[in-house]
Write a structure and sequence with these properties.
single chain; Alpha-Beta Plaits; 4 domains; five-stranded mixed β-sheet; Nucleotide_cyclase; transmembrane helix; Cyclic-di-GMP_PDE-like
Length: 647
């Protein structure tokens, strides 16, 4: 567009310059023509008066002899003394352009002729109207022609420019659309714009398109690399740096389910049975360390199998794909894992580490069906012993007939534990802060198989809840705890016993517990029942009935894992618990987290106003203990304070 403006300015300037030159040329020509006309008229007048007397010079004679009206505009006859004898005027107006030029060049001037012998003096002005008209017509014609010559190319070039601009736009748009729609990820991007239409626009555009193509290619590489990095991050677990569930699904669908080649092997699912317990009792940082250690064990064991793949499916589950590994060899894999988990369990003083479910696979098998079967195998493994594994053989997989066998086996194991009362009790003290603070020891339960092997506690309790057997387990724990307290003569200590929300909201359980406490009036005042905040929220009316009953019996209530839900303090004021136990997530890295410090201090202030004591759990370091003490809490619990020990 700037070039087109320059063209217009150039053409107008040229036209003005040409007009000025032409005007000067025509003015010079007009002056020359007038000069010749004046000379001719002077000669004619001189010849006319040569033989004339003064009396013979009359208007009629002059008109006949000199045609003065057309030749002269002014004709004055004077005698020797200069007196005017005769004056003939024929007024004429010059055209505008000629008059304008005449004003500046003064070409028409008075002329004089003298006959001394006859005493005749003539003064005249010629009539230049005809010359002036010719001058004006010629000049206007030249201006018009030069204007046409100057502006016709401008209008023509404007049309050409618009057409060229439209062609360029359409061609570039066509090339870009072709690149976008036909080849969104081409490796030959530098050739995408090199077509015939672009070539027709001129060689000057070729370097620009090549630079554009090179730029787009570099940007495309950047986008590819960024997309790959984002995909890797989206497909990677942060804690273990293993592929996550998305990567597992993609790998299975691509290399197993949809593979054109025959594929077979074994799929193992490993579930970290103690993650929830560690998070609650030792803190989330210890939980991450636990998961990382289990991941390292799995990677070390699977590293001996060619083509093996390890993924972390969720917080507690890992998946292992063992290509070309039959069931018999998968049993050795299960034994090796169990041995390594048991060794780690002993070093870390855990009740269990992880259980493993194994199933064979072959290509074409839907992933959902396979996961259902391996989850069933996992349930079977959990119901055996700590760190156990179970393989679901091909004979069990026909039509998935054994899909419910895991639940049935769990039901049998739980029934057997209840009937045989195979529960052992652990104790972990809460250390009071301050002289006036009161605390207690939390009783924790462990369950054993018929062979005396320790069952994974978290899995056991979760399956009991799932199979609606939690009430019977809670009754077993309470009965065992009361008998142990009486037998060991712990009448001076206070004990906390965990109760599931489903039991607290069950009318039959509440009636049973009230009768049980009334029988043990001396012990009831030494008991504190712990119920999770989330569980209490599920049925506030039933929660209030349970808490009121516990208070009538002389016992106390602790709301554990406080801060996970969205309960208001109006809820606690109505329920009137005796203690709240802050969730371990609030003590994790407490010395560096100012927000958690502020929140805990606020909770302590509000809780104390309504007469509720506040405990912190998951204390794992001296720094965390020190910060908690400065926040005016009433007690602390965690592995730094004391590890669970047998009663």
């Amino acid at each position: 567009m700037a070039g087109f403006r320059k063209l217009i300015i150039l053409q107008v300037t040229s036209w003005l310059l040409l007009s000025l030159i032409s005007s000067f040329f025509f003015a010079t020509s007009f002056d020359s023509a007038i000069s010749k006309a004046q000379q001719s008229a002077h000669a004619m007048v001189t010849e006319y008066i040569k033989d004339k007397k003064l009396s013979e010079v009359t208007p009629e004679h002059i008109s006949q002899a000199l045609n003065s009206g057309e030749v002269f505009s002014t004709f004055i006859v004077r005698d020797f003394d200069g007196n005017t004898v005769l004056q003939v005027n024929t007024p004429t107006n010059l055209p505008f352009v000629a008059d304008f030029i005449e004003t500046y060049i003064n070409a028409i001037r008075p002329q004089f002729a003298v006959n001394d012998s006859k005493d005749i003096k003539i003064e005249f002005l010629i009539n230049a109207q005809s010359q002036a008209q010719l001058l004006q017509q010629a000049l206007l014609l030249l201006l018009v022609i030069s204007a046409l010559l100057a502006f016709i190319p401008v209008f023509f070039m404007q049309g050409v420019y618009k057409k060229l601009n439209r062609n360029v736009s359409m061609t570039v748009a066509s090339a870009v659309d072709s690149y976008i729609t036909q080849n969104q990820a081409t490796d030959n991007i530098e050739f995408d714009f090199n077509d015939g239409k672009v070539a027709e626009l001129g060689q000057e555009l070729t370097p620009s398109f090549k630079r554009l193509a090179s730029f787009l290619k570099s940007k495309q590489e950047d986008i590819k690399n960024a997309a790959h990095s984002i995909k890797q991050e989206a497909y990677k677990d942060v804690v273990t740096e293993l592929g996550n569930r998305n990567m597992f699904v993609e790998y299975y669908e691509q290399y197993i389910e949809s593979s054109s080649k025959k594929a077979f092997g074994s799929l193992a699912m490993i579930r970290c049975s103690e993650l929830q317990v560690i998070n609650q009792t030792r803190g989330y940082q210890k939980g991450d360390e636990y998961i990382k250690s289990v991941s390292d064990i799995i990677k070390h064991v699977t590293g001996t199998y060619a083509g093996s793949q390890v993924f972390r499916l969720n917080s507690s589950d890992f998946a292992v794909i063992l290509p070309n590994v039959p069931s018999k060899e998968a049993e050795e894999f299960g034994d090796t894992l169990q041995s390594r988990f048991t060794q780690f369990q002993q070093n870390q003083e855990l009740s269990s580490v992880a259980n493993t479910g194994i199933v064979p696979y072959e290509n074409g098998k839907p992933l959902g069906e396979l996961l259902s079967v391996v989850d069933n195998a996992m349930s079977m493994a959990q119901s055996k012993q700590a760190n156990a594994w179970h393989i679901q053989r091909e004979s069990d997989l026909v039509n998935n007939v054994s899909a419910g066998f895991g639940n049935q086996n769990w039901r049998r194991v739980i029934r057997d534990v209840i009937a045989s009362k195979r529960v052992s009790l652990m104790m972990q003290n809460i250390m009071p802060i301050g002289k006036n603070s009161k605390a207690y020891a939390e009783i924790q339960s462990r369950f054993k198989t018929e062979e005396g092997q320790m069952l994974p506690t978290a899995s056991f309790l979760a399956m009991a809840e799932k199979l609606e057997m939690a009430i019977e387990i809670d009754q077993l724990i309470i009965d065992t705890s009361l008998e142990t307290i009486k037998t060991r003569n712990f009448n001076e200590k206070y004990f906390g016993i965990n109760v599931t929300a489903s039991s607290a909201h069950n009318d039959q359980f509440v009636i049973w517990l009230e009768r049980r406490l009334l029988k043990e009036t001396n012990l009831a005042s030494k008991l504190v029942f712990e119920v999770s905040e989330f569980g209490l929220q599920q049925n506030i009316k039933a929660s209030k009935r349970f808490i009121d009953m516990v208070h009538r019996a002389g016992a106390r209530i602790t709301v554990e894992r406080f801060g996970v839900g969205l309960t208001s303090f109006k809820f606690f004021r109505d329920l009137k618990p005796d203690y709240i136990k802050m969730d371990a997530s609030y003590t994790r890295g407490l010395e560096e987290d100012k927000n958690n410090q502020y929140f805990m201090r606020l909770m302590v202030d509000l809780a104390h106003r309504i007469g509720v004591n506040v405990f912190a759990e998951g204390i794992e370091s001296q720094e965390e203990k020190h910060i908690v003490e400065t926040l005016c809490l009433d007690g602390v619990q965690g592995y730094y304070i004391e590890k669970p020990k047998e009663i």
